[in-house]
Amino acid sequence: MCAARGDAPGGGRYGEAVFRPEQAGEGERIDFGALAYDDITMARLRALGAGPGWRCLDVGAGTGTVSRRLLDEAGVESVLAVDRDVRFLAERPGLDVLQADITAPDSLHGGFQLVHARFVLMHLPEPESLIAALAELVAPGGVLVLSDAVDLTSDRTPVTPYTTVMRAMWEGLRATIGTDVSRVPSYPHLLRGTGLEFVAAEIHVPPLVPGSPISRFWADTWERSRAAMLATGLVDDAAVDAGVRYLDSDECAALSGGMLTAWGWKAEEESPS
Ligand SMILES: C[S@@+](CC[C@H](N)C(=O)[O-])C[C@H]1O[C@@H](n2cnc3c(N)ncnc32)[C@H](O)[C@@H]1O
């Protein structure tokens, strides 16, 4: 893959400046996101054909929920789960685990029928070159599937305790580790630019219901990025606390960030005539 150090103004990286895996509760935070999105992800991967005989790569696999469900529910042949920190991943028959930084050169080699990366590229620099490198890992006839967050608010969205904290979160993560969700809607275009074909995309927005996995995911994420949010000057501790209370109250009437999933297929190799 490609060499790239974080391009955040502060030079920080995922897992170091924020979302440190060794901090208690980080696995649970990832699992709340997985609970909110895994069924949607699995439905899409299965609709794309993930099943028996497929060799799969799960990039930035986190706690491995998708990797395991690919094996258990879709019945794929194998999954290679890769992460910069693999403490939440355990090997088992069919599931191989590799600790690697996907921004390092030559960290991965192909070819897989499915290459999947969810909520990873948005945190990393140079998505164009990362997407091109991931496309290289797809076997002929295989598919690259990318999911990342989209911010569906605009300057006309009503101001609520939720939107105030979310705005500070995106800005704080951008400044601290370079997270940038503004480029996520470009993924279909970027996939096509790598030469992948039959590109398409969809968005899922889980309802923000008090106590739901997505509400708990945002509350946990705010807690873990509180310092980055305060540093923006957009919120103080009281505003973050108000956002957490709002999420858990009947007052909550807001649109969550969504998950955009985009995919593209690598052409089959032409058989010699
Ligand atoms: C938000 S979690 C998503 C986990 C999982 N894909 C999911 O959707 O449940 C992001 C994951 O990407 C991993 N990650 C971040 N930067 C990485 C890098 N440069 N190389 C490999 N993995 C990375 C993190 O360690 C973390 O497990």
From TrEMBL:
Coiled coil: none annotated. Keywords: Methyltransferase, Transferase. Residues 1-20 are annotated as: Disordered. Pfam families: Methyltransf_23. InterPro entries: SAM-dependent_MTases_sf. GO terms for biological process: antibiotic biosynthetic process; methylation. One of its GO terms (molecular function) is methyltransferase activity. PANTHER family: TRANS-ACONITATE 2-METHYLTRANSFERASE-RELATED. This is Methyltransferase domain-containing protein. It comes from Streptomyces chartreusis.
